[in-house]
Amino acid sequence: QVQLVESGGGLVQAGGSLRLSCAASGSIFSINAMAWYRQAPGKQREMVAVIRSGGNTNYADSVKGRFTISRDNAKNTVYLQMTSLKPDDTAVYYCYLNNGKPYWGQGTQVTVSS
Fold first, then answer.
1. Strand partners, 25
2. Which of 10, 19, 48, 78 could join 34 in a cystine, given CB atoms 3.0 to 4.6 angstroms apart?
3. Contact (Cβ atoms closer than 8 angstroms) between residue 60 and residue 49
4. What is d(CA 91, CA 45) in angstroms, rounded to the nearest whole number?
């Protein structure tokens, strides 16, 4: 089993920044990818950013140029640096890890006020 613990969410004004962290522990073995997803009220969960084992990254079009995903392999931790936040970024953000099986964190609320 793998446990994912997220932190860093909160309330921020539009234009502000937040950094989310997700620490993985347990039977991690070889990680194929780690990612951040988000789900806003009444909407489907969507991929925000992914970082693969080789370091390749992909971003949703809506966050390109504003969000940066990074990973500390020694700490099995993935980060999401969010800048120029908009009210549309308000959502619960979930950490995701795939090591052959998918694992999800419990989610952390990000609220951006206008």
1. 3
2. 78
3. yes
4. 9
Q: Are strands 91-98 and 108-113 parallel, antiparallel or unpaired?
A: antiparallel
Under 8 Å between Cβ of 67 and 81:
yes
How many residues are recorded in the chain?
114
* Distance linking the first and last C-alpha atoms of the chain: 40
Listed in sequence order, the DSSP H helices in 66-113 are: none
Q: How many helices (H) and strands (E) does the chain have?
A: 0, 11
Q: What residues does 72 pair with on adjacent strands?
A: 77
What's the Cα-to-Cα distance from 29 to each of 38, 43, 62, 68, 99, rounded to whole Å?
25, 33, 32, 25, 7
* Encoded tokens for 40: 């806003």
65: left (phi over 0), alpha (psi -120 to 50) or beta: left
